[in-house]
Amino acid sequence: MTANRRSWPRATAYLLPFLVGTAIFTVYPIVYLLIVAFQEDYNILTREFSQFGLSNFEAVLRDPDFGNAARNTALYTVIVVPVTISLGLAIASLLARIRFLRPFYQTALFLPLVTSSVAIGMVWKYIYNADYGLLNFLLSTIGLDPVNWLNDPRWNMPALVIFGVWSALPFTILIFVAALQSIGEQYYTAARIDGATVVQRFFRITVPLMGSTIGLVAVLNLIDSSKVFSELFPLFNGSPGAGFSLYTVVYYIYEQLSAEWDLGRAAAASLLLFAAVLVLTLLQAVLQRTRRRRS
Amino acid sequence: MRIEIRELGRTFGSAPAVEGVSATIEDGEFICILGPSGCGKTTMLNMLGGIIAPTAGTILFDGVDVTKVPAEKRGVGFVFQNYALYPHLTVAKNIEFPLAIERVPRAERRRRVREAADLVQVGPYLDRRPAELSGGQQQRVAIARALVKNPSLLLLDEPLSNLDARLRLEMRVELQRIQREAKVTTVFVTHDQDEAMSISDRTMLMNRGRLVHFADPQELYDDPAELFAATFLGNPPINQLRGRIDDGDLTLADGTIVQGIAPAGLTVDAAIVGVRSETVTLASTAPRARARVEDLQYVGRDVYADVRLGDARLSALVSRREVDRSLVGTEVPIGFDADGVHVFDAESGRRIR
C-alpha cells in the first residue's frame, strides 16, 4: 500500500457519506435481523424478549404455510433458472451472429429493465386475460382451449413462470452475448475445418468456453428467483395467487411482518432462505471446479 | 494430392487481395508462399482451405473442382498462426477433436491420437491443457491435430512466427521431418525468406496480390523473374544500378560508364541492373570500372565493402584475404561475375537479361 498518510483523512471524508449510508441501511439491519432471529417472544413495540434460542426457527419449520411457500419457491426456481439459461443461450447465440441488428437488440433488451413494473403489469394482465388476452388468442390459433391464467390455481404458477423467464431473459442474454463475443473466431474456424457442424460447434466449443459465465448467470438468476415476490403485484394485485398457489417464501416473510407483526419469525425465515441460496451457490461453485478439473 | 490453381482472384470490397494466380502444386510437395505483409499470401492459403471463397478462378484437387466446396468438406488440415488450440480440452482431446467429429471408433481414435502425438513428439503431454504448454509444444499439438485426420493437404499460416529465434530454427527442421514422414502435400505461408529458402521444395513469391515467381528457392535467388524477386530475396539486398545500357555498357545518371556489365548487343533506354554483393570483386583482373572504397565492415569471416561507383553505392561481399584497411579511401578496379548480374526494365520491373 502506497497511500500516503496525509491523503487519508481526506479519503475518509469522501467515503464517509457512503459508509454511513451502508452502515445504517445495510449493516445495521443485517445485524439486527441476525439477533432478532434468535430472540424468543420478541415484542416489536417494547423490544423485549424472553431469552435467546431457536424457537423462531422451530416455529417457522413447523409452520405448514412455510412448507407450502418453500415448495412453491423451489418449484418456481427449478423451472425458471434452467429455462432462462437455455433460452438465453440459444437467443444470445443467434443474436451474436446477426451483427447489423446489434444496436437494435441491445436497446430492445434493456427496455424491460428500465420500464415501470406497473406498465409491464398492465401489459401482462392483458396478455394473460382469459377472454381477450393475447396468449389465449395464440393458443386458439393452434386449436387449444383458452386458459384462465390469472384465476385458475393450476395455471397461476405457469403464468408466473412465463413472466419470470421473460423478466430474467434480457439481462441473461446481454451477459451471454458479451461472453460469446469474447470467444475467439479462430476456434470456430478451426472446428469448421475439422468438419464440425453448427450444432457441434455450439455444444463442443461455445458451451464449454462459456462454462463460468453460465455458472455466474445461473447463480444470479437463482438468487433473484428465490426471492420471487414483487412479481405478484403487477400480475395478481399482490395476492399470492388463487388458492395460495403462488405463496412464496418472501411472501411468507412479508406476511409475518405485515399481518402477524412477528419480527422473530420473519427474521428466522429470511435466514433460512439466505442459507438455502448460499448452499446452492456454493454447490454450484464446487461443481464447476470439479468439472473443470475433470475435463 | 495434386493442386491446380487457375486464374484465382479475391477482392475485398473494391481492393483486390489476390489477382490472377495460376500454379500447379504436385503431390507431396512442400510449398512456401512467401511475400511481404499484405501481399495476399494468407488470403491464398485461406482460399485453398475453403475459409475464404474466391471471387474469380478455380481450384482443383486431383482434378476435381473444389472452388465452391466449404472448408468442412475439403478434408484439409490447417495450422493457425496462433494455433487455435481449444483451451478447455487436454492435448489428447484437442488432437482427437477431428476424429470425434468424424465419429471414428474409440479404439482407432486412441491409436491415431497416439501416432500423431508421437510423430510430433508431444506424447508425454497428452493430459495437459494448452495453457500449460510452451509455444513450441502448442505448435506441435496444432500440427498433430491437423495431421490426425490424414488430410490430403496440410496448410500452415505463419506457424513459426510466434516462436523465439532458436526454436524457430529447430521447428523448421522438425516441420520438414514431419512433412516427409506424413508424406502430405503441404503449403506454408511465411514472410521470412530464410524460412522459405530452407524449408520448401518450391516457393511461390507473391507481391501485391500477384504471383511473381514460382520456382525452387535457389532458382528464385539465382534467376529472379522480376526486380521485386531480386530485391526481396537475399541479404544484404541486391545492389541496384540505374542507367542506360548501350551495347552492353551501362551509363549511370552522372555519366559514369560501367563497361560490358550487360551482354554485348543489349541496348535498354531505362534499365536497373541488379548486382548481388557476392559477385562484386575489388581489384579485379577484368575491371569494368573504377570505384572508391568508402568503408569496410568485418562480419566474422566475411567483409562487406561499401563502394561508391559514380553516384551509386554498392555493397560488395569480399574475402578477408583480398582486402585490408589501407584500401579505404582509394580507388580500385571493380568487376562483376556475369551470373550475379541481372538486367531489369526500369519501368515494368521485368527481367530483360
Output the keywords.
heterodimer, A: 295 residues, mainly alpha, MetI-like fold, 74% helix, 0% strand, globular, B: 353 residues, alpha+beta, Rossmann fold, OB fold (Dihydrolipoamide Acetyltransferase, E2P), 2 domains, 6-stranded mixed β-sheet, 5-stranded antiparallel β-sheet, 8 helices, 20 strands, 24% helix, MetI-like (chain A), transmembrane (chain A), transport (chain A), cell membrane (chain A)
Describe the structure.
- Chain A is mainly alpha-helical and 295 residues long.
- Chain A has one domain (35-294): Orthogonal Bundle (MetI-like fold).
- Chain A has 13 helices and no strands.
- In chain A, helix 2 packs across helix 13 and helix 3 packs parallel to helix 7.
- The longest helix of chain A has 34 residues, at 64-97.
- Chain A is globular, with a radius of gyration of 24 Å.
- The model of chain A has no long low-confidence stretch (mean pLDDT 86).
- With 353 residues, chain B is α+β, with helices and mostly antiparallel strands.
- Chain B has 2 domains: 3-232, P-loop containing nucleotide triphosphate hydrolases (Rossmann fold), CATH 3.40.50.300; 239-345, Nucleic acid-binding proteins (OB fold (Dihydrolipoamide Acetyltransferase, E2P)).
- Helices cover 24% and strands 35% of the residues of chain B.
- Chain B is elongated and about 75 Å long.
- The chains are: A mainly alpha (295), B alpha+beta (353).
- Chains A and B meet through helix 8 and helix 9 of A and strand 6 and helix 2 of B.
- Chain B: This is ABC transporter ATP-binding protein.
- Chain B: GO terms for molecular function: ABC-type transporter activity; ATP binding; ATP hydrolysis activity.
- Chain B: Keywords: ATP-binding, Cell membrane, Membrane, Nucleotide-binding, Translocase, Transport.
- Chain B: Pfam families: ABC_tran, TOBE_2.
From the N-terminal CA to the C-terminal CA of chain B, the straight-line distance is 36 Å
Which runs of chain A of at least 5 residues are low in confidence (pLDDT < 50)?
none
Q: How large a portion of the residues of chain A is in β-strands, by DSSP E? A: under 5%
**Biggest sheet layout of chain B:** 6 strands, mixed
